Amino acid sequence: MSFRVQPKGFATKSIHAGQEPEQWKSNAVIPPISLSTNFKQNFPPEKDGFKYSRGGNPTRKVLETCLAALDNAKYGLTFSSGLGATTAVLSMLSAGDHIVVGDDIYGGTNRLIRQITSRFGISATFVDPTNLEAFKAAFKPETKLVWIESPTNPLITIVDIKAISVICHQIGDHITLAVDNTFLTSYFQRPLELGADLVCYSLTKYMNGHTDVVMGGLTMNSDKLYQALKFLQNSCGIVPSPFDCYQVNRSLKTLSLRMEKHQSNALAIAKFLESHAFVDKVLHPGLVSHPQHEIALQQTYGYSGVFSFYIKGDLKQSTAFFKALKLFTLAESLGGYESLAELPSLMTHASVPLEDRLKLGITDSLIRLSVGLEDSEDLISDLQQALDIAAKA
Ligand SMILES: *Cc1c(COP(=O)(O)O)cnc(C)c1O
């Protein structure tokens, strides 16, 4: 098994891109947190340069430059949350426009499109993006945006981003393909390389990785998209705080190290679970048993720490399992250094209607893990003892 080979230079970019000490009068090696809401102007005022912190902020600019570099993108933008970034993307649309959306996407994105965007006369078709014929058939003359995620959550389905981008671009230049890359980060997957126009992040998750900031980001190569989204970032006021920008910028310095460890821990655990008698099935793209294992190897540089598995039994057994866990914390969210476990049917995906949940396979025996950076032996022992208890429940 081998994923794509990571080209050299990622860690160097994460540490140095946008961080030049010479940009500060003090030559500070670590970018300062610039809290000022306004900036003294020259007269006549210059077109570029900082004026008011919603429109542009020095600490934010450092982070946006670094973010763009990690995706080999021309531009990066940050927002007050992942959904804030999504709001900006959806705000490029007008009444009458149509969106094609992957049917197994983040619940908050689903809610935003179904309950908010729809009120502004923008319609959406939800479709399985692994079924390319059905995907093609979902387009209408008024389609402007395509929104997909790979892997999906919590079923960890891999979408062939290149195949999707070929279809989008055959249809025409008026289609923007946006890929939510939260689960893999720029370290393991760079959708712009695969033909996407726009990459969206909940920086709250792996990119920050320390479970202490809520933020979103976008990267892109197109000047037109950048101008439109920068305008919306300022006009809608969906901006992050300078302190949070400082934190995320700092977190990116260890992104490659963290992702390598998330990957090796998660793979060791996935293999352990696959061999356990009380585990029915493990959904991890690094395993040969995963239905889209080959696509995962072709389009990604590795895999992160979130994956799911089915235990034998039902709610009674999963309840016993969660009660028995000592090291894994029962909590929503993902991508931090601490290991988490959750039951999507009652937690992250409880708002999905029962019928849809069952159709997708989100049962009471499906458990999602976000494997952290602890020692893998300790994590495996914890799962082992909890599974032993669940098996007797
Ligand atoms: C968490 C998450 C979001 C939303 O991000 P927030 O920062 O919580 O607003 C979007 N997409 C995915 C895949 C996520 O996991």
Automatic annotation (TrEMBL):
Family named by the database record: Belongs to the trans-sulfuration enzymes family.
EC assignment: 4.4.1.1
GO annotation, biological process: cysteine biosynthetic process via cystathionine; transsulfuration
Statement: the UniProt record of this protein carries the keyword Amino-acid biosynthesis: yes
PANTHER family tied to this protein: CYSTATHIONINE GAMMA-LYASE (PTHR11808:SF15), TRANS-SULFURATION ENZYME FAMILY MEMBER (PTHR11808)
Recorded metabolic or biological pathway in which this protein acts: Amino-acid biosynthesis; L-cysteine biosynthesis; L-cysteine from L-homocysteine and L-serine: step 2/2
UniProt KW keywords: Amino-acid biosynthesis, Cysteine biosynthesis, Pyridoxal phosphate
Cofactor(s) of this protein: pyridoxal 5'-phosphate
Top-level enzyme category: lyase
Gene Ontology molecular function terms on file: cystathionine gamma-lyase activity; pyridoxal phosphate binding
Assigned GO CC terms: cytoplasm
Pfam family, one: Cys_Met_Meta_PP
CDD domains per UniProt: CGS_like
This protein's name: cystathionine gamma-lyase
Record flagged with keyword Amino-acid biosynthesis: yes
Native source organism of the sequence: Drosophila willistoni (Fruit fly)
Modification sites for N6-(pyridoxal phosphate)lysine: 205
